[in-house]
Write a structure and sequence with these properties.
Cytochrome p450; monooxygenase; 2 domains; mainly alpha; metal-binding; 6% strand; transmembrane helix; 4-stranded mixed β-sheet; iron; single chain; membrane; 705 residues
């Protein structure tokens, strides 16, 4: 502000007392530097000494800052103006002196500017009448510039500051949005330049020419974009007409609302445009394939082309391309290869894994039997299946089962993970990270902290083991790994920590394997029993088949029984088709121009086998809305076209484990119990507008057979 007052002095002398301009030359110019420094120094010292936090001001602001910003005011530098003691109402003269000093600094500058400005306004025309026309115009323009340069900061900067300074005198509790206020401060440098361009005609004309040039370039760029988009659209598979920049977002939102969900929207587009259709989400074309043959051709026969997943900016920022869910390239390949190798050695899909699954199922059934009253136990399906599946995956990953004494550990992990993923919205998944960081910092921190908390909770046992190994209390047997963590840590010990094998990778992999091994299987089980309770005749037929092959239930159902249970296989297949856990499948990058079903798809497009649309395709599955396991009895080959685990190199890593879990859990529960609903059964999908389904809220009764 003192710089502006110096400008007014200079302009005043330039018009009324030219000889005094010598004080702006040579060594005399130091006077004005010292002038500005003096008032700046005075302002800084008064702020530092008069407004330092003391016991009274800290106590006064502590609660407000804690409630509004969730921070303790003592944790960061702060100054405060409290003119009156909030307890006894006495005047705090130290703060009052600071306020008066600030007003003196500000008002001194305004006094200089008002005096010089008013004098120039009243006398300038008389002083410059003998100047040339150009000089007169320049003086008027410079005067107008000075007036605008002081008016602008007065409105956006000094009036807000003055309010803050004066309000304590009146002992008013006023909450000022400091974030907005600070943003208004940053407007001043830009407005200062705009004032000059507005007042000085040469600058104004130059600015107008630049703006017109930019406008022409912008129009040409948009024209070329439209041409390129039209060329792309003409080659891509058919789809609704897209708009520049936003693509088909309006149509997608409209049909989500009118059809009632994601799956019905995708099915609508499939029926209208064919089994291969294109939707533009913003400027990127998304090609959905909704028939089995083309999906197999693209993602299995050309698997290497479509190994890279598309990941939202927020996941790329948080995951740093680590793990298997949100990674690509060499790291993803190494992590997937190692996990498959480890699971195979641990017996996934073999007798050893069957033993683990049955151990967990028997433990849960023992709890059910213990709680039975007259042979009947009522329980929440979600809790039963969550704990069963969660204990299986946890024993594989970190060697720890969940039993009654540590059940709360599982519930805490599940709670943290659910809270983390419920934080994300479609808005977050599409927004650039810099927008989230700068304009929604609290939301960004909440999402990031949720991910970190999930990793820490999921990998808690693994981190304990690392400490035990360092302390010499745990030794890994390289010939008999107890779990995935053993294998990973042994690899780290053998080869040393590197970019693939390190503690952060271990934590992320455990979280990824937890997610893929827990949520989808649990949702399928709950959805399956919900359908079987709605259509009990299929449940009874499957039970009759199981009694036949187990000699009236004298033994457990085993994985070796699969070839002998075509009806149970059909029931599980129909459950998976009907549940179709992913409403929207993961997108893959198309890295080179490729023909798909007779259509050319350019590089840079996103493609996927849209499993939810495929599973309701009436040309493949007759009456797809009906739950009818016997469709697979009538046509045995039809079961091959149910692909809940995806296709190609990015298919579900835990497919073998999930198939084993579903077969053994469905089979043995149907063998041991009859089931009845407790309360009304749900027929409506939960979260139909999200990317994935959530399990039904199902309460059911276990009745001993």
């Amino acid at each position: 502000m003192s710089l502006l007052s110096v400008q007014f002095i200079y302009r005043y002398w330039a018009v009324f007392d030219v000889e005094k301009l010598q004080f702006f030359k040579g060594r005399f110019a130091l006077i004005w530097v010292l002038y500005c420094a003096f008032f700046g120094f005075q302002y800084s010292l008064s702020t530092y000494f008069f407004f330092t936090l003391d016991e009274v001001s800290t106590e006064y602001f502590l609660e407000e800052v804690l409630i509004r910003y969730h921070r303790n005011i003592q944790e960061f530098p702060a100054t405060a103006m409290v003119a009156y003691d909030p307890v006894d109402g006495s005047v705090r003269w130290w703060n009052i002196m600071g306020i008066l000093n600030l007003l003196t600094v500000v008002n001194t500058q305004y006094a200089v500017m008002i005096y010089c400005g008013w004098s120039m306004h009243m006398q300038m025309e008389d002083k410059i009448k003998n100047f040339s026309g150009m000089l007169r115009r320049h003086h008027r323009q410079f005067f107008k510039t000075l007036v605008l340069q002081i008016t602008t900061p007065t409105v956006i900067l000094f009036i807000p500051i003055t309010l803050i300074i004066i309000l304590p005198f009146f002992n008013l509790n006023v909450s000022i949005p400091s974030g907005v206020l600070l943003c208004s401060f940053t407007l001043y440098p830009a407005m200062d330049s705009i004032c000059v361009m507005y007042a000085v005609s040469e600058y104004k004309r130059t600015a107008i020419r630049i703006c017109r040039t930019i406008q022409k370039v912008w129009k040409e760029v948009q024209r070329k974009k439209l041409v390129r988009q039209y060329q792309k659209v003409s080659r891509l598979p058919p789809g609704p007409v897209s708009l520049p920049l936003i693509g088909n977002l309006p149509q997608i939102v409209y049909y989500l609302y009118t059809t009632g969900g994601v799956v019905s929207t995708l099915d609508f587009f499939r029926k209208r445009y064919g089994n291969i259709f294109t939707l533009w989400v913003g400027p990127i074309p998304h090609v959905s394939i909704a028939d089995y043959e083309t999906s197999h051709e693209v993602f299995v026969k050309n698997a290497n082309k479509y190994a890279d997943k598309f990941h939202s900016p927020i996941f790329r920022e948080m995951r740093k391309d680590i793990g298997i869910l949100t990674a690509n390239g060499d790291h993803w390949q190494e992590m997937r290869r190692f996990a498959l190798f480890t699971f195979r050695n641990m017996g996934v899909g073999k007798d050893l894994m069957e033993t683990r699954i049955m151990e967990e199922l028997n433990a849960r059934c023992a709890d059910i039997d213990k709680a039975a009253v007259n042979g009947v136990t009522t329980t929440q399906a979600a809790e039963f299946f969550d704990l069963t599946v969660g204990s299986i995956i946890n024993s594989i990953l970190v060697g720890k089962r969940f039993e009654e004494h540590n059940k709360n550990d599982f519930l805490k992990i599940k709670e943290v993970m659910d809270a983390s993923f419920e934080t994300f919205s479609p808005f977050d998944m599409t927004m650039p990270v810099w927008i989230l960081k700068n304009f929604f910092p609290r939301r960004f921190e909440k999402m990031r902290n949720g991910q970190e908390s999930s990793k820490q909770f999921a990998a808690k046992e693994a981190l304990k083991r690392i400490d035990e190994i360092k302390a010499g209390r745990y030794v890994i047997d390289e010939n008999n790994f107890q779990d995935y963590t053993d294998a990973f840590l042994w690899k780290m010990q053998k080869d040393g920590e590197n970019e693939d094998y390190n503690v952060e990778s271990l934590k992320t992999m455990i979280l990824d394997l937890w997610i893929t091994g827990q949520e989808t299987t649990t949702t399928t089980l709950i959805s399956g029993f919900n359908q079987l309770l709605l259509h009990s005749k299929f449940m009874e037929k499957a039970r009759a088949e199981l009694f036949e092959i187990t000699e009236n239930g004298s033994r457990n159902v085993s994985l070796s029984d699969r070839p002998k249970t075509p009806y149970l296989n059909a029931v599980i297949g129909e459950i998976q088709r009907h549940a179709s856990i992913l409403n929207v499948n993961f997108w893959r990058w198309n890295n080179e121009p490729t023909y798909m079903g007779g259509h050319m798809v350019d590089s840079g497009a996103l493609v996927t086998a849209q499993l939810s649309a495929l599973h309701v395709n009436e040309t493949v599955f007759e009456h797809p809305e009906k739950f009818d396991p016997e469709r697979f009895i009538r046509d045995e080959k039809l079961l091959q076209k149910v692909i809940p685990f995806g296709l190609g190199k990015r298919s579900c890593l835990g497919e073998s484990l999930a198939r084993s879990e579903l077969y053994l859990i469905f089979g043995n529960l149907l063998l041991r119990y009859k089931f009845q609903p407790h309360g009304e059964l749900s027929t409506r999908e939960i979260m139909p507008y999200s990317a994935g389904k959530r399990p039904f809220k199902l309460e059911m009764q276990f009745i001993e057979v």
